[in-house]
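Service request form, structural biology core

Requester: graduate student, group of Dr. S.
Request type: structure prediction, single chain
Budget code: on file
Notes: please return the result as structure tokens.

Sequence provided:
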Amino acid sequence: MPASRLHLVRHGEVFNPEGVLYERIEGFGLSGLGHQMAAAAAKQLQSERIQISKLVVSPLQRTRESAKPISELFGIEPTIDERVIEPWNDFRGLRVGPRAILKRPSILLKLHNPSKPSWGEPFTEIADRMTSAALDHWSEVEGGDVVIVSHQLPIWMVYRSASGLKLPHDPRDRRCSLSSITSFEVIDGKLREVAYREPGIEFANQAVDGGAV
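Core staff response, request fulfilled:
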């Protein structure tokens, strides 16, 4: 039999004192709070007494570090899959906001079609590659659960696609907090969400209160 459930785990908080869009840039690992968030996600999965048959991770540093506590608790080595990586973005390395736009008016040219979006990887491509990866890994194991440690937008695209929602959205409305766990079952070959947990939310609140985010 294939996997029982798929758990999509977002990475923990990244150490990013300059507040840039780090996208796929190397060298952006977890902050101290980020490591605590990742540990909380691993403990949440452990508390649910699931059996993990496969641990899949994006190749970026922040996701590999977030997968480490899961790997250690469950005694399973992660498999890297490029399909679950952060989407590419034309604003990588920049601090995007009102001040940035004033300094670089050309940024506005990239914002002409937010439904695609015009500044980065199309939503449809993100949803397709993430869903394909999830279903492939689900079918490749014999029982147990599959955990995929990925990024906010890819996880959100899987959720919206599986829920029959339009992919264009307001980024402020994403329900995918740091180190959150979004779980799915596969029914008739399609993903269906069954649970959402936020084990890292306590640490996220600390980060906001302390000015770290």
